[in-house]
Amino acid sequence: MNTRSFPDWMAATQARTEAALSRHLPGADSIPARLHDAMRYATLGGGKRVRPLLAFAAGELSGATPEKLDIVASAVEMIHAYSLVHDDLPCMDDDVLRRGRPTCHVEYDEPTALLVGDSLQTLAFELLATQAIAEPVRQLEMIALLAHASGSRGMAGGQAIDLASVGKPLTQPELKLMHALKTGALIRAAVLLGALAGEPLSGDERNNLDRFAKRAGLLFQVVDDILDCTANTATLGKTVGKDEAADKPTYVSLLGLDAARTYAEELRGDALDALAIFGTRASRLTQLADYICHRQF
Known about the structure:
mainly alpha; 71% helix
């Protein structure tokens, strides 16, 4: 039974993830020192760690040990960090602020930032491949799951659709597909990988967890679009209003602000319905769905 308050659990899990990432990243003084320093800069010291939080919460459903979840959380967060470094490059979103400080290519340079992303991506898979997380067949399934979520049929594919959609109107199904790939795929992977690090779930349990993960991923993006219109740069730690300025399709531009908020609540409700099968075992996932929906930054 979870007796720790949600804010305390979240802070402890974030701190645990930070420590795990610091252990698994190369030391800043190891050769090539500049690249390793930049990898640590891009990964440590910031971010909400939503994906690791989801992995740890899902791991509670299957009895996964914290040590195994450290590996899963680190791998997923390294993929996320790499994607942010590459997304911020001038050839992508051309942003100068991330997590309240200069983006990687501004702090270092563009070639270094490109190599940082490449290195974080490969290190994530090295962790999943070399650490003892599960029996070999399931560990291969976990590696394949993260690879699928990261590639052309996942995060990278969603970014490609995003770049191709600038200045073009998208229907709601088209926008949903784009974000299911760009943002949702890695969030879904974090949830499923956390659960896979423990004992097997039943077929119904896994299907419901997958449904939750998909709704949570879309919910995260809808709220992100809302915050891009309602929050400020100092609060978010990144440049706000860039999507509107770049004429990118968002849920706010498509639905309007009030309807986007209503849609977020609908997604939250559906996500919570999917967790009903787990009862109190899913209390942390329930709390995270509420946090994602109602977060202010």
